[in-house]
Amino acid sequence: MSIKVRYFASLKERIGRSEDELSVGAPMSVRQIWRQLNPELAMPESVLAAVNMEYVELDSLVEDGGELAFFPPVTGG
User: Would the pTM of this model clear 0.90, i.e. be above it?
Assistant: First the structure.
């Protein structure tokens, strides 16, 4: 089982990569995936997450074959 994880904009720069592939044995929450892939880096407070191109809560589960994307907080003016 695998989950594709993508990072965008300033998150990509901060982490130093644009994507990861995570092998999992069972569905994992968005928050758990962040912690596993980035154990040294706290998740930004207002980070946005999307699973299969739909925004989700950080406790939402990501299934096998899913795609998880992280976006930094967006501000407007």
Answer: yes
